[in-house]
Write a structure and sequence with these properties.
Layout (H helix, E strand, L loop, with lengths): L27 H11 L3 E6 L2 E7 H11 L22 H18 L1
Antiparallel strand pairs: 1-2
Helix pairs in contact: 1-2
Length: 108
């Protein structure tokens, strides 16, 4: 069994020709196919070229029976991507996490 390829650049899917970036509107079936092609257990969800969440194979499998293969993964993904400036101060870091939390609540 081949090991999954990993890459520090979440947008580097050229190594797998049929893999396209996963977005919140990607269907559950398409996201499952993406994970099978890449060999990964989870993938970063992109919107407008920036990470907005994460979806796992486990969450997709559980959602398949409840929501069906054509449901968008926005209904099952976790909105956990929080871009912060490593050099930023505490105030700006907390604001970034607060914004991400509101995004998560808004999309649930």
């Amino acid at each position: 069994m081949a090991l999954p390829q990993t890459d520090s650049d979440h947008t580097a899917v050229e190594r797998v020709g049929s893999a396209r970036p996963v977005t919140p509107t990607t269907t559950i079936a398409a996201a499952q196919a993406h994970l099978q092609v890449t060999g990964e257990a989870a993938t970063v969800v992109l919107e407008g070229g920036r990470p907005v969440g994460v979806v796992t194979a486990v969450a997709l499998a559980a959602a398949l029976a409840r929501r069906g293969p054509d449901a968008p993964i926005a209904t099952v993904m976790d909105y956990v991507a929080v871009p912060v400036d490593p050099q930023g101060d505490t105030y700006h870091t907390i604001r970034a996490f607060r914004r991400a939390a509101w995004d998560w609540l808004e999309h649930r």
